[in-house]
Protein 1
Amino acid sequence: MARIDLDLAHAYKPNPQRDEDYALLPLKMTFNDGGAYALLGPSGCGKTTLLNIVSGLVKPSQGGVKFDSVDVTGRTPQQRNIAQVFQFPVIYDTMTVAENLAFPLRNRGMAADKIKQRVDKIAEMLELSGQLNIRAAGLAADAKQKISLGRGLVREDVSAVLFDEPLTVIDPHLKWQLRRKLKQIHQELKLTLIYVTHDQVEALTFAEQVVVMTRGRAVQIGSASALFERPQHTFVGHFIGSPGMNFLSAHVSASGVSVGGLRVMAANAKLDGDDAITLGVRPEYVTLAVPETFGALPATVTQAQDIGTYWLITAHVGNDHEKRDGSLIRARLSPEQNIPKVGDVVWLNVIGTHTCFYRNEELIA
Amino acid sequence: MKPINQKAWLLILPVVLCVAFSAILPLMTVVNYSVQDIISPERRVFVGTEWFKAVMRDDDLQGALLRQIGFSISVLLVQIPLGIALALSMPAKGWKSSAVLVLVAISLLIPWNVVGTIWQIYGRTDIGLLGATLAKLGFEYSYTGNATHAWLTVLLMDVWHWTPLVALLCYAGLRAIPDAYYQAASIDGASKFAVFRYIQLPKLRGVLMIAVLLRFMDSFMIYTEPFVLTGGGPGNATTFLSQYLTQKAVGQFDLGPAAAFSLIYFLIILLLCFILYNWMQRVGTQDNSGGNHG
């Protein structure tokens, strides 16, 4: 087990010039010993690259990796004592389940009786005890993935266990079971776990700390609630949540904040200057308001969908039907309310304690 | 009850016709010859299983069969490991891999009789690179005079000609193994040998099966190269089955015995392929139940 410090950048091509040349832009990050972390982001955001750098499969082109303040940048995964579970289950076809689990220990020359003890313990934890003596090749995907995981856990001194979208090939109803198993293992073994995924539900339920990444940049590190309530970057607001945060083009001036020419908020210390900003508010916090309320905006409803436990209203700010960028707003309304119909003009409250303001995509207030 | 529709027979008719002309009719012609004594184009006598009995007792033929089996086994024992080793040492990507692939494939592009001629010259002690070098080293090499030398030369020629096929098949098989396996093995601390034994070899099972079957069938039917190189000699040291058969059928015009033997020959190949195929299918898929761990 180890505390992992990263201070690096990575480009697959030599001589990166622009930001686009980097798979990972310069970043500084610490994974605390025994923490459960998730790297969350869309495909191609650099999360797998970051994971492979931690494991030692990829060497960063700049900077380095430290485990417990020891520089391990040049070391192999084996020397770093990392365990990694891949997207597709990797098992040794010709071996039994027990032999698969014993393989990493056998390669390290451990005594046979100790290996057996350890394998039995891990198999029991993963509920594989009944299948120890059957050939691993014939098992279902979820059992195979458990074996891949078991090969990582079987080593007692492992520094961290890394997961690269491990539930991609698993049936949905088994995903829940495996995810619960992972949490349980984390609580029992107190290992550092780093989990890569593009599924926000997976990341938010699994991890204590979620690292949201986009285009080679880690834009925010925080707990599920921090990511939800105070997205540091518009990407986080947009990526987390279903649907994501509403972003409205706004203008800040000495008199306050206005959206589409309508003043919605008085000026305060954090919001100063005289320029364009973005107002962000989650659909969960948008409420219906009495017309002409201060802090509310008139909007034309373009869509009203019944999602079961709530209604999702899509509207455009302003009473014309012109669709401009930064004027789309969605609201989650409880079915007990009077749900507006398509074409109605409604007033929606967008100002509250949960409203965030962004300049150049970064949170300012 | 479901109505029975006989139209399906019409649909398979084209295939039946193709197979009939390409396989069944020629085979039946051979069957026809094998039970008759053809004295002249006008005179023929039905002899039943007489030729089969005679052929089975023929010493020359038994000798050719034994030589053939020995040759095919040697071919497999040399070419399969060598092909795997070659594939493992070939570069995986970049221009080097393309260059090596082309180089390796060259010998496969040479017609059989040219291969024979190349080696005939190559092995000559006066002008051949191999023969002259061996002679200079004081080694009395002669593929025309010494049976062992002839036999080894034919084997070496086949290895040179066909190992690349095994290598190419294995190369394709190796490239199909996802990177995650190597990464997992490196994380599990596997040695190079363990990677080969537990990842590469099991993943190559499919292509190796094809390689073994192809090499077995081809080597069992080898004809042109030894015919050009040694003509089956010295004596009959390198007379393999095909050549023996051709001598009998075309040389001596003993159509009956030749036909009888070609049927036996056909059955031997079929049987051995069947055994090989089933054995290789079983290896690697059978359950290791009861195998202890730890």
Protein 2
Amino acid sequence: MARFILRRLIWTIPSLIVVTFLVYIAIRIGTNPAESYKRSNPRANAAKIEEYKQLNNLTGNYVKGYVKWSQGFLKGLFDGGASWQRTIKGRQEVWPLLKDAMANTLRLGLAATVIGIGFGILLGIYVAMRPGSLRDATVNTGAFVAFSIPPYVSAVLLQLFLAVMWSRWFGSSLLPTSGVYPPGHQGFDLWLMAKHMVLPVMVVSIQIIAVYTRYMRASLLEVLNSDYMRTARAKGISERRVLVNHAVRNSLIPVVTVAAIDVGGILGGLIITERIFSYPGMGDYFLTAFSNGDFPQLMPFMVVVVFAVLMFNLVADVSYAWLDPRIRLG
Amino acid sequence: MIDRNDQPILSLRDFRVSFPTINGTVQAVRGIDLDIHRGEMVGVVGESGSGKSVTFLGLMGLLPRTAVIEGSAKIDGEELVGRTSKQMRSVRGKRIAMIFQDPLSALNPVHRIGKQITEMLNAHQSLSKVAARERAIELLDMVGIPQPDQRAQQYPHEFSGGMRQRVMIAMAIANDPDVLIADEPTTALDVTVQAQILDVMQRIQRELNTAIVLITHDLGVVARVVDRVQVMYAGRAVERASVENLFRHASHPYTRGLMASLPSLDAHRLVPIPGAPPNMLEPPPGCAFAPRCSHRRDECVVELPSLRPFGAGETSCVRAEELVEVLQ
Amino acid sequence: MAEITTSVPPVTPEAIEAAGTDSLAASGLSTKSLSPRQMAVRRYFHHKGAFAATIVLGIMVLFVLLAPITARYGVNEAIFRAQAGVPNQNLAPFSKAWFGTDEIGRDIYSRLIYGIRVSLLVGIAAAFFATLIGVTVGAFAGLRGGRFDDLLMRVTDVFLAFPFLVALLVVRNLLGELDWVTSIFGPRTSLRFIIMLFTLFGWMAVARIVRGNVLALKEREFIEAARALGASNWQIVSRHLLPNSIGPVMVALTNTVVAAIIGESTLSFFGFGFQAGAGDTSLGLLVADAKGGVLSGWWWKVVFPCSALSIIALCINFIGDGLRDATDPKLVQG
């Protein structure tokens, strides 16, 4: 088992380098330096543009540029982002922006993911107990509809009805539709924050619940039809033990693996929802940086995302091996 | 050793199983009478679809909820038919244990072997953790698994097919059941391994005085270890005899047909039984084998034949007396 | 041992009547059977969702194909010229404009029809090409195995784990800056480019599914038998593996269509999508316009495009589900 983890870990490091390198190239080409700089700073002259390019090593050889950039990046990890280049627009420090964005997105994402996966699994178990029953059909169809409707459609519709229409019919809006706090609010307020998170979390978790209900149901049904379930019953152990120790235990394996991968995608996966609800998270950060072609702002974001994805892929692999001993050898 | 005058440990009377399906009701088992005594090994032989497995899955309560089970099945005098799932739990694994055909898929792949055995023990006995572990290792040793203490820590996929089946047997005898039902235990195994497993089972029969029901389609397996044989066809028993008598003087054309289709060194061709088993949605009237039987007469299809004493055993063929000459 | 004859004439009166001299029927076996394709079709229509979805989508497609007839106005045409006191912007649905008008007085119903046409085009084209590439690569990887297969799985693993929109946008901009790409597919706001983009993202999922299927089929005896008869790799792929993979491939295809349609609308929503002149629109653009409608309560701008998008996605998903039911090997064997 330890050997397995070690092997996977060793493979992760070079892939981290390769992927970030490819991302570097993609971003460098995709954010045309001269154009982007000019767009954000219309009165910049050629010298300023050149300076920008030099600072960010955007001239010349890609490999050298990557090396230089990664040196700066790694240094910045240890000095609180001071060694990171500033944004094109407004020459802001990147780290504080990134930090806040991450915090906001993590709050939203983790809440929605935990709720979504948790309820999804429970619901999936609930319906797999009586396949073909009315409740099975209802939940199945409901889940199907829920995940067919793209999240931003449901977000917009929810916004429309719960906030705008509601306030038309009832006076004030039921739930706030944007931001982390009402505009102008200072300081930390859990209740207000929670109120603002309700709609976006609802939108995201409904999608997740829909997907995981179907996963869990499918997995559990397959397990319930396995031969070892019959053996377990033939042993005369209690039905609850049969369900928990055999059915659920075995059927959770693929679901947990997928869940790990999904968690890895949280940081970049809420862009649409955040935009619709004007939630200042990673999505907002990315869209701003992306629209501006802001290389120094984009790269740290991309690294964080790449890291999260690769790390959680590793976690998924390891947890799969841990849960299913058949995988461990090899 | 086997005292036939003793009360049978497992007794079926007019045992029936049917399944409602979209196309109609499948009558899988159409009235089985069978007595099994303590310590005897009975072979139940038949093709796929003969109802041989369904009979015993049915009395164990391991069939899908939609199955309709009628008649009587008694374990040491206590009725099993009509029991709820909960009530069946005190029987399963404790008084009647069952092992299945493919030990790889029958064992939970993510639990260690030792744990799967102690689970069986803990379901019906209260042992301390240590005592249970030790007993599990003892059981593995009893079925001939080398280095049982190490092996108990391993997972099913780390065992060979024969070893896995031994593990299944160890699990089954953990609580010293009165009856062990083995559903095609050797079908998925190599021939040499088959012999080993049958030996293990015979040892258990002798040492623990456990009654064993050996369900199989393989006459060769039956010839080796069992005391008595019941031949099934289309949900009914068509012949019953001791194993020597069956092989020497089979009285039912179906049994004869089965034996004729076994490859042998001096036969020139394989002689199959023509035709195919009947559709159990609408079983034919009278003797179910009649359409394929070359000795059939009108009287065969008049009514459903039952087992009756014939010679040293029992047969359901209404023409058994006349055919004695022909079938030799 | 007695000899047993091999002919089995029936004896019972009932058997004779029912079966004539058919021995199989005399023994009670059913002889009626349908071809696998017929059974698949039957299973498909048995799926109520798929059945309804096929009809709904069919009607929609018909409407879209007959656009000049079914649309009441041109895609860029105001329903009537605005005059003083008679505005044409943002009107609620009424007889002249069934779904209301947008901010410059155009009929939303007509624009919806044209918009759906564009989106469906993107979805189907992208899915078609993605499936073509995905099936080829996936079958090859599955059959050959080894390094190539390993590499494919690793690469697609990482790619597919990436947050979709981030990857989509980054790749879009990257390709949009490369001259050799834009010279073939046009600028990044053109339809061709967008189709290419979704093909690029779509083939991987298809390849994985096909590869998985091929791996499973490879072990089956009929492939071994074909090899023993001397079939070449190519023959095995085209005559045995592909026909048996049609089920999963069709399901993957429908998934790609939905993904492309929703993806395109997402891109348009953020302004990174299709931008043709002359008021041409797509579903995504219409939904993007909708955002403006939320705060002002112009519900028709939101509800109709959103519903259209949802219905299309739902229908295609149902059809995919029906296809899965129709071709599921577990259900086929019964």
Protein 3
Amino acid sequence: MKQWLLGMTAVVALTAGALPALADGDLHIYNWGDYTNPKLIEKFEKQFNVKVTLDDYDSNETMLSKVRAGDTGYDIVVPSDYTVKIMIEEGLLEKTEPSQMANFKNVDPRFVNIYWDDGRHYSVPWQFGLTTFAVDTAKYSGDINTLAILFDPPAELKGKINMLDDMNSVIHAAERFLNVPRCSGDKGDLKKVNDLLQAAKPNWKTFSYDTITKMTSGDVAVTETWNGAAYRMRIAMPTVKFAMTKEVMEGWMDNVAVLKGAKNAENAKLFQNFIMDPENAALISDFAKYDNGIMGSHKFLPKEFGEAPEINPPAGTSSEFVPPCPPEVVEVYNKIWTNLKK
Amino acid sequence: MATTELTAPTPGPAAPEPAPSAQLSNAQQAAVRIEDKARISRWLLTAPAFVTISIFGVLPLLIIIIYSFLKAAPYGGVVWSPSVEAYVSFLFQADIFTDELVFSPDFLQIYVRSFIFAVGTTVICLFLGFPTAYFMATRSPRQRNWWVLLITIPFWSNLLVRTLAIMFIIRDEGLLNNVLIGLGITKAPITILYTDFAIVLGLFYSFLPFMVLPLYASLEKLDFRLVEAGYDLYASRPKVLFRIIIPLSRPGIIAGCLLVFIPALGAYVTPLILGGGRHMMIGDLIAQQFGSGRNWPLGAAQALILMSAVLVALFFYVRATTGKMKHGQG
Amino acid sequence: MAAVKGVDLRSQFGFHTIAIVCLVVLYFPILILIIFSVNANDIVAVFSGVSTRWYEKAFYNEEFHNAAKNTLIIAVSATIGSTIFATLAAVATTRVAPWRGQNAAYMVINLPLMVPEIITAVATLSFFALLGSKLGLNFGIGNIILAHLVFCIPFAYMPIRARLETMDLTLEGAAADLYATPLKTFWHVTMPLLMPGISSGAALAFIVSFDDFTITQLVAGPGQTTLPLYIWAMIRRPMTPEINAISTILLGISILFILISFWIAQRRKA
């Protein structure tokens, strides 16, 4: 028994002691799960002789909690739009001035003067997309391009809908359907939102981020989801269509930013510049199937991707990026959400 | 807490007992010496566990307690200014229109729901786990270790992948329904997934070993001569079970119930996935405060209220059972 | 003569059946999990044909290697550490004459059980961040192991304690009568009798550490991703049968690990 214990400890010590090969420098990236093309990392590692580590998170809040606590050891994080704004305001990001970098000219001008980083002083576009919903047209053949599908569904779809387990996405969608402003502090508006959600809930089957499996397994016929996920669903189930609603749609963008005080800040800046190159941006999109914010990348991507309906919203539709709501409003949102899910 | 050490334990053979004559026998003298050294060494023995948990478990918890008495920062995190808002808002929320504080049962509702699920899970685990543990304990000594292994191997797979597999079996178009319909037992699919039953099933699955293993540990030592004595006295099988076997395995039952009930109260990943997320559990609720809810103090307060409730419940349970146990453990 | 002569006095009505049913219920999803790891289809939920490409993918997946390695290191370390600590503590706190601080010890040891995971996660994150920034203390993957130790100890402690409480002290008394030192008594008499409790405790500690996600997620640093983190972070993305393949691989490795140590233990006994 003693020997067994010793042996076990030896094995553990040996494996723990195995050090990674040292290189010219390191880079520690903290990104969303399954969101980074290994080929992109390899290319970067070879080009700059840097050893890259990649770790995953599943939500902005997890990443934010860790970064706020401090001393994470990460150099690069990939926050979503509103999270970038929060992080800049709390002084958590390094001002790397991507606008002065060599490849900056490739950034799509639509994404330079955005609310979370006007003029791009901290962050670089990684990928962006839309959040509405996908419908299995085999189960419903009517017009799907309206939020009424979620909030006032036709009979065939009642009870077969999955919503994202995301307070902001659901509440903002309700606001769009009711045509009230986002982050509205107006009590009357908030009450309307609450009532709408309560009325719609019986039609919803589940709340989950696992949207692709829910559709492809047949658990639901409609799911609130992101356009890249819908693209994947369509490849598996050709009858799936991504709705481009007549109401304004939710847009989001993930951005590459450098943490303040990052140990490998120079390598991190190299990485920021690196991904503004169209060929590299294409690698990013090819992996997760979302569009990137760099012009000229589409010629490096397969044609089906560039022409996919999911990343080409038709004329007449529009999308918006939504800033974080003020704390008083979030408080009420929180109540509405708890009320919805209790 | 829920065991006998709160009362004076029945004196073991090592406890010094003043003999009728003034002289202590050799064995008793040796026992006294051992007892003295043992008192000091007991502290040393508990030290590793005690110190580790004190530093890396209790100290961090103090941070949370402090957080619960602070104000929430606008985008998450805390602001270092004291406030009892978090605790007040557990029961009283400002009405949307009047800004008056009204009693809000929302959180209580969620707590009660989790509590019911935890109790249900514990009961089911006990009813099904006891026979399983008993079965394992009555195998031949060589086989027993393999059974312990067998019970734990399923849990060396990843939770999420395992849950997906369970979903594959129980969903409307899943394996179970296909088999049932194929065999003609039912015509329409039985809805299991995303119901409360699925949650209980998932919790039962996750927590079964936490009931079985402690039970097994205590049942394995069961002295079957006592069982035989029961039969010798013409007791029926159920009587032997309830009057002899179960009371003797009480430590295992208590350990198992604690190891299932308490974590089940805070469980939320499995219920979230299998239940569909339409109803929050406590774990969900608290996690929400540290996430997009952006209210750390509230999350901390909710957790502390939960822990206090558990402590109070345990305290009363111990009070109630200590008397009984003193009697039963003769 | 026993009233139920001729029948195994140990068996109870229906227990055998219930035990087998429980085991079947436990293993069936695992079987599905393994079968789906050779699913030719991209989509995790639909089976269409057999293919080993996911194992190939897993084989070349460096992130998986790193995550698996970390998971095993952490789980094994936490299991060994917590089982040892728990055994020592259990022996000192069970069925002994009451000593000052015994209750405090019991409460502290079982405290981690009561704390919701997300709270432990945030608390430990804040604590280690404080240690790191104010005292410059960072144990690398040791941080995670320490965090795991904390919640594994009560899981190891309870079965061992339950075992101790059911045990008969006369054997130890006999050893004392024979002038055996407490240490010798412990090693040669108590420990072997305690083994089913210790192995139960170790098994529980391993399970709890192996699958931990909430706490590890907030405490892990760069390069310290574990398998639960890796798989969970994929939930918003299309999940392919690769996760089945990597689960099966890790399951296989763990089983192999244990079988080898069993075999070594048997060899020693012989």
